[in-house]
TrEMBL record:
Residues 17-95 form the Winged helix DNA-binding domain. Signal peptide: none annotated. This is MarR family winged helix-turn-helix transcriptional regulator. InterPro entries: WH-like_DNA-bd_sf (IPR036388), WH_DNA-bd_dom (IPR027395), WH_DNA-bd_sf (IPR036390). Pfam families: HTH_34 (PF13601). The lineage of its organism: Bacteria, Pseudomonadati, Bacteroidota, Cytophagia, Cytophagales. SUPFAM superfamilies: Winged helix' DNA-binding domain (SSF46785). PANTHER family: BSL7504 PROTEIN (PTHR37318). It comes from the Bacteria.
Length: 99
């Protein structure tokens, strides 16, 4: 019998990264402050996890200015959406195997 834990995505095993992806999977773009408040994390914590997800191309980053203030928005990519779905499927397989 194959070990379902092998199908888990290491990038999404961290709680904060999984939370970020869970929020972004709704097809909405979120700015940094909204994500920070929604998840209840610090600036540095969010920034480091965003950077890791961006490096894997799981999210895209769009920078702009709103009323002369920098505004950074994040959105899930197709690669990220696929990885998220596979990770959830693997979690489901783990749970089913335990029954």
């Amino acid at each position: 019998m194959k070990n379902p834990f092998e199908n888990l995505d290491k990038m999404l095993e961290h709680r904060t990264r999984l939370q970020i992806m869970s929020v972004l999977v709704t097809d909405s773009a979120f700015d940094f402050n909204t994500l920070k408040e929604t998840l209840g994390v610090t600036d540095g914590n969010l920034a480091s996890h965003i950077k890791a997800l961006e490096k894997e191309k799981y999210i895209s980053v769009t920078k702009s200015f709103v009323d002369r203030k920098p505004n950074t928005k994040y959105k899930i990519t197709e690669r990220g959406r696929t990885a998220f779905r596979k990770h959830l499927d693997a979690l489901e397989a783990v749970v089913k195997q335990q029954k």
